[in-house]
């Protein structure tokens, strides 16, 4: 069995399995799309192989699936049999519909892709998959990344909304349309008495999540109704000065903005920062490895090298960034690494 990076994560025996390809033209027998974030979704029309994704991910990315592509929906905890492998999806706790990919053959391999262990107001955290080989994300794979309890941040958002309303400001929350916005929608519903008015892109994603049975609360489309709005939710890329000014004029109120992201305080002093990440922090990553008890680990994204070193030290197992595994086969790798 070979595991390496080649325009996505490859797991290969005679059969070639590819997870989250970075480009549309790829060579693989079966392709798995872990979740709906655009850097993970590149679906080509000309591939003869099938793309598998959860039903909700399929709903969220439907517009990006070419008519000629083979896309198939696979539910959580169900599986497909390849020539030598059984492949299944397990919740990754990252965004609604997001999945870890579990490949069982001669060895059991789990590719977490983007994940978090924290439960959120709209979904449970990732299920930890015991495995022989773990490919774990490492976006925040450095000890200094430690996220607060989610409920504490929700309460902060609630307080901020209340404060803004008392001062007759219009609060605007910023979060990515896919993932963060569904959580923000639910937070506004649960931690304030307002119904959020949301941008069209968010409205579409929210409606898809709701149609798939997720309870994210009430929301309304921003139309010509700004004067009735008590809270807005917008994608961050639309929160430039001109747009905010235009909103303020139509709503006849001053606006205050808050942004939800895991990166520590990106704000320039004008907006309030709520540290809500859809990724695992360092402790969650180490916790995952400790409980999954893999015999070896590959790290992927962000602080891959730092996390690999920490894992080697803590668990005395081989670990390395998957990017460096391009030319290695697993057997060789086991020999060269202590
Ligand atoms: Zn993601
Ligand atoms: Zn990602």
TrEMBL record:
SMART domains: Lactamase_B. Signal peptide: none annotated. Residues 5-157 form the Metallo-beta-lactamase domain. InterPro entries: MBL, Metallo-B-lactamas, RibonucZ/Hydroxyglut_hydro, RMMBL. GO terms for molecular function: RNA endonuclease activity. It holds the Pfam family RMMBL. PANTHER family: BLL1145 PROTEIN, CLEAVAGE AND POLYADENYLATION SPECIFICITY FACTOR FAMILY MEMBER. This is Metallo-beta-lactamase domain-containing protein. It comes from Candidatus Iainarchaeum sp. The lineage of its organism: Archaea, Candidatus Iainarchaeota, Candidatus Iainarchaeia, Candidatus Iainarchaeales, Candidatus Iainarchaeaceae.
